[in-house]
C-alpha cells in the first residue's frame, strides 16, 4: 500500500494510540515510528494531537510532548478540561478530533497517503472525505486487544488497516530492565 514517491502525512491521536499500545503491553518509540514512515514514502508532516492539563505542576506527558516537538513532530495541543462526574469522580476531557480533521483536510491536496493512528469511529467521515480527494488512507490501531480498539466502520472505510501489534518489532521500545533490588 505504500509507494516510495508517496507524499505521506501521519495524524496521531495521542491518547488513542497510547491506550492501544498499552492494551498490547508495549511502549512506542516515536523516533523509530517516524523513521519507519520516512522509509515508506516522502514524509510531509507528522502531527501528534493531545490535550494537556495546564494547572498541574507536573504532567507525565509533558516530557514526551517536548521531545516530539524538538524531534520533527508538529504538536497540536490544547488545555484539557477537568470536571467531576455525577458519581463525584474527577474526569479529564480533551477531545482533539476537530483539530485533526481540519489539519487533514487542509493538507489533503498535497498528499497521496494519510496514515491515521486512531481506532475512533468518529473519524470514518474524515477517511471518506480524504478518499474523495484522491488520498489513500491507512488506519493504525488494534483488533488484538480485548475489546478491539478499532471501530469496525473505520476499519472498513480505510484503504488499508495496519495492526499496531504487527508494528511492535519495528516501533516498540525495548522493555526496560527492572532495577536491581538491594539486598
From TrEMBL:
It holds the Pfam family NYN. InterPro entries: LabA (IPR047140), NYN (IPR021139). Residues 7-165 form the NYN domain. PANTHER family: SLR0755 PROTEIN. This is NYN domain-containing protein. It comes from Paracoccus broussonetiae.
